[in-house]
Structure formats: structure tokens, C-alpha cells
Amino acid sequence: MRSRIEDVAAVAGVSMKTVSRVLNQEPNVREETRRRVLQVVDELQYRPNLSARSLAGQRSYTVALVYNNPSRNYLMEVQSGMLDACRANHYNLVLAPLGASRPRRATDLVAVFEHFAPDGVVLIPPLTDDTAVLAFLREREVAFACIAPRQGEGRIGVTMEETAAVVELMARLIALGHRRIAHIKGPPTHGACQWRYRGYRQALRAAGIAEEPALVVQGAFSFESGMRAASHLLDLAHPPTAIFCANDDMAAGCLRIAFERGLRVPADVSICGFDDTPIARHIYPALTTIRQPTAEMGRLATLELLKRIRAADAGEMVRVAHEVLFRESTGRPARRD
After folding, report:
1. Does the global pTM surpass 0.85?
2. Which of 8, 19, 74, 320 measures 20 to 30 Å from 68, CA to CA?
3. Which of 42-46, 111-115, 124-128, 182-186 has the weakest average pLDDT?
């Protein structure tokens, strides 16, 4: 039989209200009592009845991941981290994709609240900076947390020093002897596009290498856009010896085109990405990339959101560290420019 809150209270020797306060992470519960209740919850494998909690507490105990990011790998990583945080706090998670056009986004967003009535939402780029989405949430006083917003002041969620990470990656490519380094950018509306392009330019400038406009190509954070951009770059009369892509999906697209053309990676062209999503480790050669702890960022953003749901002035913008991972897809150039 399924354990009830009454069973937890009886075994722990506390009131049902105290059990509820512990599960909702409310303050003013003694630490010893909190530990005892959580131990009993674990022993009895108690799972709160979310419908009953909702009726009693005027909450849905649901949070939504609101997105229109084209990178499935990135989305899955964020979702995984959010699920961990939701399970640990007895919340449900719903996925809320929004349409590409502004009218469609507005319609989809209204539908999310009509159907699920989430207590709060986590936004991922580029929606973290979508003025219409932000206005909708603020007008309705909905709690929200952001992952990697362009403007972090006054927001809660999680971010990373992406420009500094790219400078570090580029410096190591330059140290290997690369001078003609191309860059495939992300969507212009995406904050990551600006930060990663800025890091690319800063690193070239620091090394005394002039930026060549022909080596900078617009992408869309998708595998297909990486293929198109790589084809363009490799068709140049003087192609690059290395390509830095603003995410791993586009880098995987570059690898596909390189192998279709019979090019050796990294002997003929080095390729690197950003994020360290699973595809970076699963393809061959394994992808040099910048590890953005995406799943952890999803988890942390959700925890900050839950703090804000419980208290209007709680939550903060958490900063996480990056790691540059040099793998098999990068090496010294076969030629010197």
C-alpha cells in the first residue's frame, strides 16, 4: 500500500503540518526534526500526492521548461538536470516548446498556463532575453529563472563566463600553430552567439591575428547549419586550418562534411565546439570542446526557481565554472599560414 503523510507523521513522531513544512522546505523547522522526517520519508518510500498538495496549498507543484532552442542535445541535458531537482523537491516538470513566430510564442505561452498552471518556469536561450516572454511572466507575477541570460542583473538562475572560455580554447589552437581559424556563429538573438564571437575576436586580437570576415559564418545551432557553414568555409580558395563552432551540434555537422570530402580530422582541418553535450564524446574523432555543465545548470536554475516560488525575494544568479577539453578533433595544422 502507498504510504500516506499520516504514516510519516506517526513514525517520525511529529504533526502532519511539520511533515508538510519539511517537504516544502519551509523555514523554522529544527534541523534534527527535518533529518528525522526525511529519513522516515525515505524508509517508507513516501511520495506526496501532488493533486492533494495543490488543492491544499494553492499551488500546482509543477514547473515548466520553456524553450525554442534548436539544439536537441542541449535541451535534453537541461531537462535531465531539471528532473533531478524536481524529483528531489517533489515537483512535476512539464516541457513547454514555443513557436518560432512572436504571435505563435504568445499563443503557446498562454496555453501552458491554461493547461498546467505552473508555479514557475525556467527559460533557456534565446527566450531568456525575449522581451515579450519576459513581459508576459512579469505582468502575471510568475516566478522564473534563466539559464545564461544576456542581462543577469535583477535575475535569478545560472550563468557561465563563456567569453573567457572561448579565449582559452582559441589561445590553445593558436599555440598549436593555427592562424586561419574560422568561426561558425550561433543565432544572433542568442546571448551565447555574442559571448562566443567576442571570445573568438579577443583571442585573435591578443595574438596579433587580423580577423577575416570571410572566415566568420552564420549558423543556427543545428547540425544542418553546421554542414552548410562547413561547406562554405571549405570551398574558400584559402580554407581555414581550424574551425571553432559555437556549439557541438554544428561542429558535428562540420565533421560530416569534412569526411564526405575525404579530409582528415585533425590533420587537414581541426574542428571544435562548445557545450560538451553527449554527441561530443560519442562521435569520432571525439570533439574538442568547452564543457558547459548543462545538466547541472538545469538543476541549479530549478533550485533557484523553487527558492523564488517559496519566497518572493529569494534566489540568486549562480555562476558555474567551465573546462576546456582537448580531444582527438584538434591538432597541429598540416600547413603553416
Report:
1. no
2. 320
3. 42-46
All three cell numbers of 202: 579577443
101: helix, coil or strand? Answer: coil
- How many Å apart are CA 41 and CA 25, to the nearest integer? 14
Are 186 and 273 in the same domain? Answer: yes
Question: Residue 40 maps to which CATH number?
Answer: 1.10.260.40
* Separation in Å, CA 124 to CA 117, 127, 155, 162, 331: 19, 6, 13, 15, 33
Q: Which helix (H) or strand (E) holds 272?
A: strand 270-272
Going from the C-alpha of 326 to that of each of 136, 173, 271, the distances in angstroms are: 42, 10, 11
SS3 of 179-205 = CCEEEEECCCCCHHHHHHHHHHHHHHH
Same domain, 243 and 168: yes
Q: How far apart are CA 282 and CA 256, in angstroms?
A: 14
In this prediction, what percent of the chain has a pLDDT beyond 70? Answer: 95
Domain count, the chain: 3
CA–CA separation, 195 and 174 (whole Å): 19
No. of H helices and E strands in the chain? 13, 12
